[in-house]
Amino acid sequence: MSSVAERVADLSQARRPFVHATVVRAQEPTSARAGDDAVILDDGSIEGFVGGVCAESSVRAAALDTLSSGNTMLLRVLPDDGAGFPDTPGARVVVNPCHSGGAIEIFLRPVLPRPLLGVVGDNPIGRAVGELASFLDFEVKELSSYAGTTAVVVAGLGRNEEKAIRAALDAGVPYIALVASRTRSAVVLDSMNLTDAERGLVRAHAGLDIGARTPQEIALSLLAEIVRDLRHGTLPAPAVGIEDSRTTGGPVAVVLSASAPRRAVDPVCGMTVFVDDDSPHAVVNGQDYWFCRVGCRDSFVAAA
């Protein structure tokens, strides 16, 4: 089995969103130790070790929340009383009802694919766009395929523009920036017989109006418009392994995979549990209940 570090590298290369969870503090008798780590995928599966089954369930639930928000989180998993474990302001606290006791703090870091940007045009403007986009942490591609691309900047300056726009539209790219004057933009788009929906995806005379003149200033106006739309949630950022994406004013975040397991709340201890084939389950008065462990299930059924 690959180490967690190798798995992190493989997932990043594959542009698969995941959470890297690392135990930063542990108090006996918990089975986890500081430095233990794991990855949690957008389907809720976990690889690695950050504690026993009760702690793991809390980590998986919190990790999926960080993928949805795009924000890091410090998770504190405490025994019933939490006595003897220093307070940490700003952390999320969950109670661990398992008999083993102990307490742990786990840092959850969502790792999301960088937005893909395609640049068409081997000229000063195209090169400036690529350089600035890399500085802004976009992944810049020389495109053989436009699939999965967040945006394409067409800076052909009269060369192969129609071909590039058509290929980007056919690949479902949600943002296509045409670098041209308003007059020439209209001529190019009118010649392509685009539908209204297709034309709406092409930003003619693209970029924010900042009075740009140099290639670097034009690149700044183009990237400023793309970043604005990403942060405001009007521009999706497709990526392999996720169904959709959105923003929360911070990092670009993901909508969880359709294969992510359903969650339920244990009616005895209040823990969030994942509903799968291994989850303790009971039907009481015609209603389904799921539990973090068999003990919670048995006590609930006995009291019903």
Helix fraction? 25-40%
Q: Describe the sheet with the most strands.
A: 6 strands, mixed
For the termini, the CA-CA separation is 44 Å
* Tally of contiguous helical segments: 8
Q: Based on CA inertia axes, which overall geometry fits? A: elongated
Q: If you compute it from the alpha carbons, what radius of gyration comes out, rounded to the nearest whole angstrom?
A: 25 Å
Protein name: Xanthine dehydrogenase accessory factor
Domain TRASH: 266-304
InterPro entries: MoCofactor_Util/Proc (IPR052698), TRASH_dom (IPR011017), XdhC_CoxI (IPR003777), XdhC_Rossmann_dom (IPR027051)
Pfam families: XdhC_C (PF13478), XdhC_CoxI (PF02625)
What would a concise description of this structure say?
The protein is an alpha/beta fold and 304 residues long. It has helices spanning 4-13, 53-69, 124-135, 161-170, 182-190, 196-201, 215-232, 294-303, and strands spanning 18-27, 37-41, 46-48, 73-78, 92-95, 103-111, 116-120, 139-141, 151-154, 176-178, 202-203, 245-247, 252-254, 262-265, 272-275, 281-284, 287-290. It has eight helices and 17 strands.
